[in-house]
Design goal:
- The chain is built from 5 helices and no strands.
- By secondary structure, the chain is mostly helical.
- The chain has one domain: 23S rRNA-intervening sequence (de novo design (two linked rop proteins), Up-down Bundle), CATH 1.20.1440.60.
- Helix 3 packs antiparallel against helix 4.
- The radius of gyration is 16 Å and the shape is elongated.
- The two termini are 21 Å apart.
Length: 153
């Protein structure tokens, strides 16, 4: 059963962050178009895209893998917006605003990941790193809502 990713708060927050990043990077110097600007856009896009792709996965292990990728991309964004601030492309006030939005999205994503991990019996990010491979039984992922969708509030 597929989860409607658009109803997941983690997707909504990360999508909002991605839109903010695309708007912000328009003001970066043109010589950064293929460097920091591009990397930041790709990393910010990766978060909601991996949540969406994972929500259509037929198995819990695939869903978990995509959530791990999304979380790692969020951490990549964190580093990139810090670097953008420190080299003068982002004002401290805007950095604080973006960091708060990203921190909120990443915290919710982490909470969701930990809940999937708990329900399925995974251990940390071990699946994604290739260590112990413990999955939920069966090949079909049960709906994992956990009250984190906006439609359940």
């Amino acid at each position: 059963m597929n989860i409607n990713y658009k109803n997941l708060e983690i997707w909504q927050l990360s999508y909002k962050f991605m839109v903010e990043i695309y708007d912000l990077t328009r003001s970066f110097p043109t010589y950064e178009e293929n460097n920091m600007s591009s990397q930041l856009r790709r990393a910010s896009l990766s978060v909601p895209v991996n949540i969406a792709e994972g929500s259509a996965s037929p198995s819990n292990r695939d869903f978990f893998k995509f959530l791990c990728i999304a979380y790692k991309s969020a951490k990549e964004c964190e580093c990139l917006i810090l670097a953008a601030r420190d080299v003068g492309y982002v004002k401290p006030e805007k950095h604080a605003e973006l960091s708060a939005l990203l921190d909120h999205a990443a915290a919710k994503l982490y909470k969701y990941l930990k809940r999937v991990e708990e329900i399925c019996g995974f251990h940390g990010f071990e699946y994604n790193q290739g260590y112990k491979r413990r999955y939920c039984s069966g090949t079909t992922r049960p709906p994992i809502d956990m009250g984190l969708t906006t439609e359940n509030r």
